[in-house]
Amino acid sequence: MSTSELVVMAAAIAAELARREPTESASLCMRDAETLARVTDLHESALAGMVARVDASGEARRWGYPSVRSWLRSGLGMREARAKERVALARQRHRLPEATGRLARGDLSYGYAATIAAAVTHLDDQDCAAAETVLLDLVGQGFSAGKVAAFGHRITDLIAERDGTESPDPDTRRGYETSWIESTRSLDGGRYIKGWLNTEDAAIFDGVLAPLAKPTGADDARTLPQRTAAALTGVLSAGHRATKVTVICDLDTLTGGTTPARLPDGTPIPAEQARRIALNAAITPLLLGRGHLPLYLGRSVRLATPAQRHVLEVLNPTCAVQGCEVPGTLCEVDHVTGWALHDGPTDIDNLTLTCAFHNRYKAAHPDSVHITRGPDGRYTYRIQPANGPTTPPPATDPWEGPANDPPRLRPQARPRGRSRRPRPEWARSREPAG
């Protein structure tokens, strides 16, 4: 059997297994869970080989993804940490023959293999071989994956010390001339903030926030960090006129319903909190037509109106091209059916957001773009590879059959009796995309 046929069989077995309820016996569940975990590690070994082949060939870029990691995140729905981990293992597997072999035989778990791959990423081939031996020996002694990762970092430090290339901690390596701030999102929707400000920026920070972070009275029990965070939030929400937060909710939610609101990126907002926000916010009504799609706004103008763009930013948090992560607020408005060449109207259901690069790419290569539209009115563009297939690839799940995407965007026939005088070359060259 070919590899593809085996993948289809494995997918079918996994789908059937996922639909079944666990057995009533806890001991059997424990045994089956251990077996399934080992099988999952074997699947990860096969996946690493496939990801390595895709990475080496540049195939992901031919399908419109900027990188293999972007393909894993957007195309396969992996979290950033998991995608990064799998790419590291795929790229290091040829330098880790023993670890790769043990993973393929089921003698090494995926967690250990990924940890070792991450530890040797910045080592040369000679040091990589020595580090692999040391780390595998630690695995054999029963150390956890976290301990092995810690030893891996220590090995990197020892090699840097041996070669006289040891570097300071990551924060120090950033330097002290340019300010920087790191912001990472927590699982509950909050954010962790870490940073450093140079002398000038620190003076601005202190001058603006220090007066606002003072205690409001004798009964103010907040700590200084809490007051500083409140001062920063106050400046961003009230003192900075460029700040705008869009909360999407139904009329029923505003009038006392329990349906949660949401941010443009899908983050849910409790109904009560949405109503509190609405008390101090500007409310913009969005009328919907059949199928809950925004109504037509006409073709009287070429460029989208501010109201239309606001609707598009709500519908499209990022560029419409699959895998492109440019925020919608930084994108251009694109006519799905071209306004200049194909008489596409400037109606809300013929508009979407694309980054500047993909807007011009679609205008220059209309036959290389597949367009789908979801039930919420959102368009998705898929870039086909040059000289590639004329139909989309089959669905990821083999039991679902081929994906039902609509045909490619093609020029529409112009009604009879209408003709257009050819534009001079200088006019065609200045015609905007879309």
TrEMBL record:
Xref: Pfam families: DUF222
Signal peptide interval: none
UniProt-listed InterPro entries: DUF222, HNH_nuc
Superkingdom, natural source: Bacteria
Residue segments, region Disordered: 367-434
Start and end residues of each HNH nuclease domain: 306-360
Compositionally biased intervals (Basic residues): 411-421
Biased composition (Basic and acidic residues): 367-376, 422-434
Protein name: HNH nuclease domain-containing protein
Organism: Actinomadura livida
